[in-house]
């Protein structure tokens, strides 16, 4: 349990901070009223006041891979223990289950078993995974097209109210893993996948920053970067202010992954990059 | 009163959940600082802590019809009783009044009398409608261009603080109804209006889903859809995954209205549709 | 101290409203997960529950001038005393300091010393400015690219927890002032700068509305407006509904500055205007 979860007030009385519920969706700004419906259902059903926060609703539509990136890199900064709901689902209406995961730290993760939870939370942390099927806790009229509101939100409220995860439904099949390419390191290269692309066209890879030291990519070294049939040169370990306009740099991002950027330009355009595709770094 | 509004804590003491105030505007993401001003004024004036939530700020600018759609379809999922403020107003500076509505369930609705409240809340629920005129509760310097902040937000805070609606001002003229075409059902057709268009170009009509059964639009049946001079064929009651790329489908949306969509395409583009215009479905 | 900050409940017991922390950034909608990280760090570190609100995250990327506009015009409507964090920083990684400012009303302002705080809060209100350097309160692994999360958020939480500003670090150099042109009034002209441009292309200047009276710009008077090499005529003191489509008007905006707009058009396009550039109004 998070050390800050329970506090004492001036008179030594224990104050309970509100329960935390976090939302991560691909509804976009235009889908804000769907977020309102999720929040409303949770607030109607929670017996005590809870605090509902947004991780982001700006996931590229249906991108389970980018959703994993946002979840994995943001979660360490959230107040824990908490309940996270993820509504990013290219397979709405298909046969994948809606599941709830419990980890060792008392956190719950709710969403479709479609690859979003394949890498995070890590397998060593997970203690139970259940299919959400208990009709008693679901909103009565279950629409085929909004399972977030009708299944996930009521399940989150039930867990916040103290229901044990076993009561949600039977044990789940193994969690799906999405198709983001794994990182592989060779003598003079490393390959991985594109985890995300930000609003400026910077490319975030899944290659950990620790590699910079490990493979001796010292500052100023020029490496080749390949995405599909395109190859471009990028300079290591410098910042945008160190290069001229159009300068191409590879650097450690705030999430401690290698990122590629172009000063006042777009690395994603230069490399014709898309989320989820393989990326290859080579050097001499 | 909502059954969850009052709760008891572990010691049986009654806990008061915070008052709910909901915002619905067309400020857009770029107008977020206007939302901050609304929230700030409410938080300054509320004597007790209140909870301010966003229904959406993504209403198409000035679209009273889309605002009605968002309000009508989202409200059933919100924690009630609550106060809703709607700031969507093509007639800023014109002669329509700013009104407050009270319904039988203890909810209040605040906004311009410009058609936003003509269908929801329903007439049978409304027990009082007042023009907000009481100078004592308004922010002193009333700007001609931001009545949301200077009239509506202070009125909402006053109601949250326990003021009775009669003290806001005199009874209002009848509530305006906006120009969304009504639904009419014939032997082999139904006409209605376009309530909203989502980020993917799906068209949401005001034709209730119950019609599917009533008029025997069974799954797989092809119907003709007319908007203006354009007519296109759509297949009934199937999902996107049932048709190929470009396939045109009519289905029941999460708000229980008929919706039109194109698999990986835009129904709004295909039909050159705009919010508020008439739409006609015909079949043999 | 704000008169509403302390309240008494039904039994006369003093209720403490939650501490207010406001965020102002240029993260955009796509950067919402960065906002989640700021909020999460604050919520982890605050000993009591606090209320975190968004001023806006829609600042034009790196525009210190527009950020100043949003801060200056929104702050009067916020619940005070509060802590404001501003993360808008074209010079990330450069040598400017991260500072904390305390004003006479008990408010704190945290952000880079890069021109954002040069005009607001006003010098007469400021009682202390410190460089945030105390390693004990900072998040341990300080990333070069996200000082908002790793320096500013922990400093805000520390102040909310009661730390005195002197403990954050040594006194700061004078606050930088950004390059927005100052207002100058002549016999038949006034010059100033462009503070902001809204989603409709309306131009917000830094010329105060009081000028309308002072220089006798009566309703209906036509004035010349110059931006760079472009000059256009605008009509004073009327609203959009008073002119035909394409009509160009100068009016008092909701922030009490002169604004320029085009009915169903964009003043920013007509004048090829950008935030921060000089603007000149002339009349006969």
- Oligomerization state: homotrimer
CATH topology of the largest domain in chain A: Rossmann fold
Listing every helix as H and every strand as E from the N terminus to the C terminus, the arrangement of chain A reads: EEEHEHEEEEHEEEHEEEEHE
Question: In CATH's first tier, which class of the largest domain in chain A applies?
Answer: Alpha Beta
The CATH architecture assignment of the largest domain in chain A turns out to be 3-Layer(aba) Sandwich
What's the story with the biggest beta sheet of chain A?
7 strands, mixed, barrel
Spatial shape of chain A? elongated
- β-strand percent of chain A reads 25-35%
* Mean pLDDT rating of chain A: 89
Please indicate the count of domains of chain A.
Answer: 2
List how many beta strands of chain A DSSP finds.
16
Number of helices of chain A: 5
Task: Give the structural class of chain A.
Answer: alpha+beta
Gyration radius over CA of chain A = 21 Å
Distance between the termini of chain A: 48 Å
The largest sheet of chain A has its strands arranged as: 10-11-15-14-13-12-16
- For CATH, the homologous superfamily of the largest domain in chain A is named as S-adenosyl-l-methionine hydroxide adenosyltransferase, N-terminal
Low-confidence stretches of chain A: 1-15
